[in-house]
Specification:
8 helices; NAGPA
Length: 373
């Protein structure tokens, strides 16, 4: 009995050893599989990186270029491109950035339409429209203010959402300056109060080190009722209204020659003589946008695109914006500063979703405003 008991114990010990050995063997196999999967993943990631960064494959190239353009056209997130892509590639992609440095366009307003009493009394055809209806471009009406001659609609695309505003009379559109020029800008709601305006959007760019600029130092030249501020730069074109209330876009270095009364500098021009002159992202990436346009009957179009907000709106390309403006019959259109500055406010309320962390948007050096009636 004693020997049998000992043999059983030895058997049990042997069985435990075998189990441990088997378990160790399984662990080694699992470890080898994990290592193999890890290296396989590295190879796949490296292959993907090579394909994206160095090969001009259809579709992948377009996505890569938009990614680079989007990162490089921000104030403080350029590292999202420089960290992953070689300088040579970034320079090549950004060399395609369109600024329309030789284009000049002035809206040719159809005087017979503008002066026709039946049309001018309701030039936006607001009388038969209600909030929730579709406007003539097929977008849902958000605000229909007949008394103020303003129609605002929601716009949507594959990657963006925003608001478009139609203003009946171009003589009501003007630029307002901050009252702290050279020191600090104002929030968009402040501009409406300062200038007793019903509608406002951002206009010029400003010096913005690390995305923390105070909005007090305007980039380029800007006019407010003929008063000038800033210095003309060849880097940007203009988005301005002359004394005949015509929208002027493009490369204009002598503003007095064109009788500019109110305007700002930025780029690019999007629509000239009713034709789209921009294609794709044009070096500007996928961003929040601010666009100003005009129909041939004088009606002014403000477009604000929200962006940098996954789940709501990533942003739009310049061609996306041009297409929206064409759908509203713009014959002239140009871009203002975009990004976290893009914002629209109506009657004391912000009606777009600015990508700035602040609910009231950025401090701005100036703004395009619409006088109250």
């Amino acid at each position: 009995m004693t020997n049998l008991s000992l043999n059983n114990n030895e058997f049990l010990v042997l069985t435990r050893k075998q189990k441990r050995l088997l378990e160790l063997e399984k662990r080694k196999k699992r470890r080898k599989k994990r290592i193999a999967k890890f290296f396989l993943l590295l190879i796949l990631l490296f292959s993907c990186y090579i394909s994206v960064a160095f090969l001009d494959l259809p579709y992948i190239k377009d996505l890569r270029n938009i990614y680079i353009e989007t990162a490089m056209t921000t104030a403080d997130h350029k590292w999202l491109a420089t960290l992953f892509f070689p300088d040579k590639l970034i320079k090549k992609v950004m060399s395609s950035k369109v600024t329309n440095s030789k284009i000049i366009s002035v809206t040719k307003i159809n005087s017979s339409e503008q002066n026709s009493a039946p049309i001018k009394n309701d030039i936006l055809r607001q009388g038969n429209l209600q909030v929730g209806d579709l406007d003539y471009a097929g977008n849902e009406i958000f605000i229909n203010d007949i008394d103020q001659g303003i129609l605002i609609s929601k716009v949507k695309g594959k990657t963006f959402e925003g608001k478009v505003a139609l203003i009946d009379d171009p003589s009501r559109v003007f630029i307002g300056f901050t009252d702290k020029k050279g020191k600090q800008g104002r929030y968009i709601l402040d501009y409406l109060d300062m200038y007793d305006s019903i509608l406002g959007i951002n206009a010029s760019g400003f010096n913005d080190p690390n995305g923390k600029g105070s909005g007090g130092s305007v980039v380029g030249l800007t006019y407010s009722n003929g008063e000038s501020w800033g210095k003309y730069t060849k880097i940007y074109g203009v988005v301005a209204f002359d004394k005949n209330n015509r929208l002027v876009v493009g490369a204009i270095d002598d503003w007095d020659k064109y009788n500019i009364r109110d305007g700002a500098q930025f780029s690019p021009a999007l629509i000239v003589n009713g034709e789209k002159i921009i294609k794709g992202s044009a070096g500007w990436g996928l961003q929040p946008r601010t666009i100003v346009g005009q129909r041939e009957d004088g009606v002014v179009i403000f477009l604000i695109i929200d962006g940098r907000q996954p789940g709501h709106s990533l942003g739009a390309t310049m061609e996306d914006c041009a297409n929206v403006m064409l759908s509203y019959c713009a014959v002239t259109a140009g871009a203002c500063d975009g990004g976290s500055s893009s914002i629209m406010t109506y009657d004391g309320n912000i009606i777009t979703k600015c990508s700035s962390p602040s609910k009231v948007g950025r401090l701005l050096p100036n703004a395009f405003l619409v006088k109250r009636k």
